[in-house]
TrEMBL record, chain B:
<keyword id="KW-0547">Nucleotide-binding</keyword>
<dbReference type="InterPro" id="IPR003439">
    <property type="entry name" value="ABC_transporter-like_ATP-bd"/>
</dbReference>
<dbReference type="GO" id="GO:0015833">
    <property type="term" value="P:peptide transport"/>
</dbReference>
<keyword id="KW-0472">Membrane</keyword>
<comment type="similarity">
    <text>Belongs to the ABC transporter superfamily.</text>
</comment>
<dbReference type="GO" id="GO:0055085">
    <property type="term" value="P:transmembrane transport"/>
</dbReference>
<dbReference type="InterPro" id="IPR013563">
    <property type="entry name" value="Oligopep_ABC_C"/>
</dbReference>
<dbReference type="InterPro" id="IPR003593">
    <property type="entry name" value="AAA+_ATPase"/>
</dbReference>
<protein>
    <submittedName>
        <fullName>Peptide ABC transporter ATP-binding protein</fullName>
    </submittedName>
</protein>
<dbReference type="Pfam" id="PF08352">
    <property type="entry name" value="oligo_HPY"/>
</dbReference>
<keyword id="KW-0813">Transport</keyword>
<dbReference type="GO" id="GO:0005524">
    <property type="term" value="F:ATP binding"/>
</dbReference>
<feature type="domain" description="ABC transporter">
    <location>
        <begin position="5"/>
        <end position="256"/>
    </location>
</feature>
<dbReference type="InterPro" id="IPR050388">
    <property type="entry name" value="ABC_Ni/Peptide_Import"/>
</dbReference>
<dbReference type="InterPro" id="IPR027417">
    <property type="entry name" value="P-loop_NTPase"/>
</dbReference>
<keyword id="KW-0067">ATP-binding</keyword>
<dbReference type="GO" id="GO:0005886">
    <property type="term" value="C:plasma membrane"/>
</dbReference>
Length: 289, 331
């Protein structure tokens, strides 16, 4: 063995994606699931074996077969095709609305937390008022005023989620602003917008990211609930939510739509949650090896 | 030559629950170009506030600079519009803070943080900037600087972080470096290293240093002159050697007698009786009078002015005031 030469450890910041996926099978699996679901949603017309809207009296409530892999529903529609097409609506709602909510909520929260004073008080009271309604109730109220329709639902869910993001962003900002490195940044001559972008946002990114992935799951659930109540995706168009609603009255005739959509929602929600945890760890330099 | 920094009759108030409390009163001193001046005092003596006032970093409200002038390169900083200050901060005057463990952004690399001030204040290409960052890190004694630029603060020890802080502060070659208790949070051995770095940097760059500390031995290590503050006022000022050999204010004397000296370990250390009065509680007379072992009747009634003891040495004390002397004009 050669003599150990004392060396200064060379520190290299590892590639972000590398950190995210290394050594964790669950995270890799979650990533794969999300990837597959996104691809399925994009290429739905090519992947679906049948037209999701075609009804047939002769084919109602069929068991899974070679022709209909997941059976048919009470109108004789192919369940697998409906699930594939439904993934489009569910995933768009699930991804777009939390992102919109995260962007708006973070801006409001950071502004309130950083500047404080009357701005903070106004925004926080407004926020509290919105938080006092359960998300679903708030979404139902807004949706019943605006009416159903797909993009309305995206907007409604986004609005319902804004207060949560704003609150987390504000609380995180308040603690970051008190850090000496922010004072040091002021002493270096950085302007407020620059301090917010360079020092505040990166330090509150972790909780926001985690919240975002958790709420992707909530948004898919909320869209399902709204569709279930008839406010979301309008029939005959499919989303995982309204597939469950349609099938509920026929659960003994054909349980396949509920089983299929329920499983998909569970798997996707779980994948996003696992991803959220992994993202938080990867965003924190101190947990990097 | 006019001094680099001239603080004249500075007064700072804090307003809480409708009550105004004066925390800094009539502070005057100067820092010449390239000079190192130490600002000493106990906690609550107003030394940190005085330094924050120079950069106008006192939060307003609740703070308020009530009176005075802070001239830097002949310009009164207190008269400048608020939005001009960021151009001076980090560029001409920069500051090192007390907590090296939390004064660095945990999610930014060392290189980015040191380069931030350069990016802000200097026009420089990216490669020039990176080269400058490496140079700065080498100057403060970070080994393998090039490789360590990509490291995050948590991978550095306290002493290393304080070195990084010094590098950050020096990034734009400031004329004045304000160091607020730069070594207080560090181990004694690391303290000595950091002070060495500061001394070296001062020699290399000619930056003037205003070193704030409650530790006279730290001041002695780095400074040419000392300003002693007590309860928001300057009580004594003079060259380091003079202050250490012949302090003219009982408070300074007390501080010096409470330092461990080699060869005198057997003696129980002196301790100044009582504690610093709460800000704003002094109505009349000398603020040190309640704790002073040498007080006379006059101390409780009249606030002593700064008396000239010759050779740049001044002390605000009735008892030690030279006979037949005039009040010292503090420049």
């Amino acid at each position: 063995m050669s003599l150990a030469v004392p060396t200064v450890p060379v520190v290299r910041s590892p590639n972000f994606l590398q950190t995210l996926f290394t050594g964790n099978l669950a995270v890799t699996a979650a990533g794969v699931v999300i990837m597959i679901m996104v691809l399925v949603a994009i290429f739905a017309p090519f992947l679906a074996p049948m037209d999701p809207l075609t009804q047939s009296v002769f084919k109602i409530n069929q068991y899974p077969s070679m022709e209909h892999w997941l059976g048919t529903d009470q109108f004789g529609r192919d369940v697998l095709s409906r699930l594939i097409f439904g993934s489009r609506n569910s995933l768009i709602v699930g991804l777009v609305s939390p992102v919109i909510a995260a962007v708006i909520g973070t801006i409001l929260g950071v502004v309130a937390g950083y500047y404080g004073g009357i701005v903070d008080r106004l925004l926080t009271r407004l926020n509290d008022a919105m938080l006092s309604f359960p998300e679903l109730l708030l979404a139902i109220m807004i949706a019943s005023v605006l009416g159903g329709g797909f993009w309305n639902v995206v907007g409604v869910i986004a609005v319902a989620f804004i207060p949560g993001f704003a609150r987390v962003a504000r609380a995180s900002t308040l603690s970051v602003v008190q850090e000496p490195y922010v004072e040091a940044a002021v002493a270096v001559g950085l302007s407020s917008p620059r301090i917010i972008i360079r020092h505040v946002l990166p330090n509150i990114a972790a909780p926001i990211m985690v919240l975002l992935t958790l709420w992707v799951a909530s948004a898919i659930r909320l869209e399902a609930s709204l569709s279930f109540l008839g406010l979301g995706t309008q029939p005959p168009a499919a989303s995982w939510g309204n597939i469950i609603r349609d099938a509920l009255s026929n659960i003994f005739g054909s349980p396949w739509p509920i089983i299929g959509a329920g499983l998909l929602i569970t798997v996707v929600v779980l994948s996003f949650n696992v991803m959220g945890d992994a993202l938080r760890d990867a965003l924190d330099p101190e947990t990097q090896s | 030559m006019s001094p680099l920094l001239k603080i004249d009759d500075l007064a700072v108030d804090f307003i809480a629950k409708g009550r105004i409390t004066r925390v800094v009163e009539g502070v005057s001193f100067t820092v010449n170009a390239g000079e190192a001046v130490g600002l000493v005092g106990e906690s609550g003596s107003g030394k940190s506030l005085t330094s924050l006032a120079v950069l106008r970093l006192i939060p307003e409200p609740p703070g308020l600079i009530a009176r005075g002038r802070i001239e830097f390169e002949g310009v009164d900083l207190l008269q400048l519009p608020r939005d001009v200050m960021p151009e001076i901060r980090g560029s001409k005057i920069s500051m090192i803070f007390q907590e090296p463990m939390s004064s660095l952004n945990p999610v930014m690399t060392i290189g980015d943080q040191v380069g931030e001030a350069i990016k802000l204040h200097r026009r420089m290409s990216r490669s020039d900037r990176l080269a400058r960052v490496v140079e700065l890190l080498q100057m403060v004694g970070i080994p393998d600087a090039e490789a360590r630029m990509g490291a995050y603060p948590h991978q550095f020890s306290g002493g290393m972080r304080q070195r990084v802080m010094i590098a950050m502060a020096l990034a734009c070659e400031p004329r004045l470096l304000i160091a607020d208790e730069p070594t207080t949070a560090l181990d004694v051995t690391i303290q000595a290293q950091v002070l060495d770095v500061m001394n070296k940097v001062r020699q290399d760059t000619g930056t003037a240093v205003l070193l704030i500390s409650h530790d006279l031995s730290v001041i002695a290590e780095v400074c040419d002159r000392v300003v002693v503050m007590y309860a928001g006022r300057v009580v004594e000022t003079g060259p380091v050697a003079t202050i250490f050999d012949a302090p003219a204010h009982p408070y300074t004397d007390g501080l010096l007698r409470s330092i461990v000296r080699p060869g005198h370990e057997e003696r129980r250390l002196y301790q100044i009786p009582g504690s610093v009065p709460p800000a704003g509680s002094i109505k009349a007379g000398c603020p040190f009078q309640p704790r002073c072992p040498r007080k006379i009747d006059r101390c409780a009634v009249d606030m002593p002015p700064m008396f000239d003891h010759g050779a740049g040495h001044g002390a605000a004390c009735w008892v030690t005031a030279p006979v037949r002397t005039t009040e010292m004009e503090v420049q």
